[in-house]
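Collaborator request, handled under Task 6.
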Amino acid sequence: MTPEVILYTDGACSGNPGPGGWGFILRHPKSGKEIERSGGEEVTTNNRMEMLAVIEGLKVLNRPTNVELVSDSKYVLQGLKEWMPHWKANGWKRKSSELSSSLKNVELWQELDRLASKHHIKVTHVKGHAGHPENERCDQLATNAAKQFQRKN
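Structure tokens returned to the collaborator:
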């Protein structure tokens, strides 16, 4: 798959739970155009912010697209490609048995599933805080978004 766009994402949280932020860069390699966005929540978790970065990035796309998703979040990448099909088959539970624990962030997983189903997504894992320029920029966007909520406390 040749990506039409590359979506770089990251999430950050000060405390877990605590104030958090997400950030993404959406790049169209052919034209060189980029979109950067960020946001956050006053009380959240790092995993939620990682997921929201992907969700918000995919929301920008208005037609089916070949997307390369580049993230340092194994939680999101494994969830998308490995875990989500099983959760869906089990009624959005981790296991089909009634005794199994409920799925955390189920509403975000369902939104991510809805958005991802519109596109062809290739996932690429990068190591966080290892000098990858776009990952570092997304971390900066997410951290700055989280800081806005830290000032309120």
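The cover message to the collaborator said: "The mean pLDDT is 92. The helical segments are 46-59, 74-89, 106-116, 133-150. Please let us know whether this matches your experimental observations."
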